[in-house]
Amino acid sequence: MKKLDVLVIGSGGREHAIVKSAKKSPLCGRLVCTPANGGIELDCASANIKADDIPGIVKFAKEGKFDLVICGPEVPLSMGLADELRALGIAVYGPNKDGATLEASKAFSKNFLKKYSIPTAAGENFKDFAAAKDFIMKSPFDVVIKASGLAAGKGVVIPETKEEAVEAAREMLEGGAFGDSGREIVVEEKMEGEEASIMLMVCGEDYIMLPPSQDHKRIGEGDTGLNTGGMGAYAPAAVATPQVLEAVRKNIIAPTLRGLKSEGIDYRGTLYVGIMITSAGPKVVEFNVRFGDPECEVLLPLIKSDALEVMNDIANGRLDSSKVQIKDEFAVIVVVCAKGYPNSYKKGDVITLPKSEPEGAYVIHSGTKRGANGELLTNGGRVLGMTATGKTLREALDKAYKLCADTHFDGAYFRRDIAHRQLERDAK
After folding, report:
1. In whole angstroms, how far apart are CA 322 and each of 11, 19, 226, 305?
2. Whole-model pTM?
3. pLDDT for 227
């Protein structure tokens, strides 16, 4: 069996999870990650090429004769990384630039959803402020304002009043908020319900639906405070019942994949479908074209099959989804962040990790780096992710929180109520 030389692009927790998953595979030969982080560097070789340095990555991949490139973040995909690598005959797990537009342009995504009659919030796209203001003031529903372009997860405003909505639209379209990403906006109905994340591993019209997961965006317990990149996640999430998932397959996934094919898009990679479970059924909140972070960290451990083999098959256009097995377990991640996050925070604090990890639990690195003497230092807002699996949700949570308790750096903070909605449902 020929082993694969694999290059992983990215430096966060998602990429560390991908590296750990790839290392387990008997197919894995040489494994390199760029630009990596302080934890990834302990698991594989690293390079110092930034994720958005497309010429640098392409040159490195070509000269290194890599068999497979797995792209973690959305920005390189939106810049056409997969297109350039595939033109050189290098297999890529991640969509071409045309497929990545589903995330890179919320306006494109909104038009796509409408064109293929996929359930989503009512709304319109605007480049002109006066037209946006008129739509907001005349709308019979509360609205959400979204910058169309990539904004690192920060381009969504949920106003309390129409006046606040108008001001948010003004700041994006005329005030330069979010720069070029806000030159076009989506104004849409504020949907009511509970959110869940559906991650698909897609190869054309064939796909694997991974267990539904639920992220925790707010910094504070009880889902209070500012939005973050994600303070924790768990899977499977029971709010996505079998009935909900069947509706997602029939009304969302099938027309989406047919639509991509109709548009001439050969989609190979992860398609993240954020859904709102409304009284009228599941509706699309957004599309992303990569694994969510921190959702990736709880989904890859639930794949019983060889995840690297699956990604390689998809990259080469030959997925047999019937052969892919999912574990009958729960997985959780609790994010440990720096004091002050998601506002300003300090970097460079020394981290003390747990001396041992419970079986089925491990530390994922997000914002870490190595100091001059090899010591582990904080280097981001979301510093570490304590990941664990278990036969029950409570078992997985207990393992993850044990890791949290045994981890130390100045000002370390984590939420103590991850999966609280599911625990409340289970208690009824």
Report:
1. 32, 25, 41, 11
2. 0.95
3. 86
